[in-house]
Amino acid sequence: MFEANQAVGNYWIHALPALFCSANNNLNGILAIVNYEGADTSSLPTSTPFTPSDTNCEDETGLVPVVPRPVGTFSEDSSLDINLIPQDNLVSWTIL
Questions:
Q1: Are 12 and 50 a contacting pair, CB within 8 Å?
Q2: Which helix (H) or strand (E) holds 57?
Q3: What element of type H or E holds 82?
Q4: CA 12, CA 66: separation in Å to the nearest integer?
Q5: What is the spatial distance between Cα 22 and Cα 28, in angstroms, rounded to a whole number?
Q6: What share of the chain is helix, strand, coil (3-state, %, to 5)?
Q7: How far is CA 13 from the centre of its chain?
Q8: Nearest in space to 39 (alpha carbons), one of 60, 12, 69
Q9: What burial letters (b/e) apply to 66-89, b meaning 16+ CB within 10 Å?
Q10: What phi and psi, each to the nearest 5 degrees, are found at residue 20?
Q11: Cβ contacts of residue 73 below 8 Å, gap of 6+?
């Protein structure tokens, strides 16, 4: 969940993937900047990034969706269509 409730400014978003189950060659470069309306977009954020207590390859537990959505059922003999879409040095993906 992302909650924009801070003072006007620029803030870092930093994703830290699980080290033992991620094939990522840019672990320290998964960054983004959130600019609040009215902030000076020419300056870098001064916020301190959150550092998780571990980056083990484990499923999180106790998560509760903000907006629950029924997803139906999935069995071992079912399949999903996954698409990777590289564009302009970014990769997005979809699950159908």
A1: no
A2: none
A3: strand 82-87
A4: 23
A5: 13
A6: 5, 25, 70
A7: 8
A8: 12
A9: eeeeeeeeeeeeeeeeeeeeeeee
A10: -90, -5
A11: none
List Cα–Cα distances, 56 to 15, 16, 21, 28, 63, in angstroms: 14, 10, 8, 16, 17
Q: What pTM, to 2 d.p., does this model score?
A: 0.49
Instruction: Judge whether residue 1 has pLDDT over 70.
Output: no
Q: Could you tell me the residue ranges of all domains in the chain?
A: 1-49
Residues in the chain: 96
Query: Which residues lie across from 13 on neighbouring strands?
Result: 32
Give the pLDDT confidence score for residue 38 in this predicted structure.
92
Q: For 18-53, how does the pLDDT look when each residue is reduced to its tens digit (9 = 90+)?
A: 766 777 777 667 778 888 999 998 988 888 766 667
Residue whose entry in the numeric block shows the structure tokens 């080290």: 19
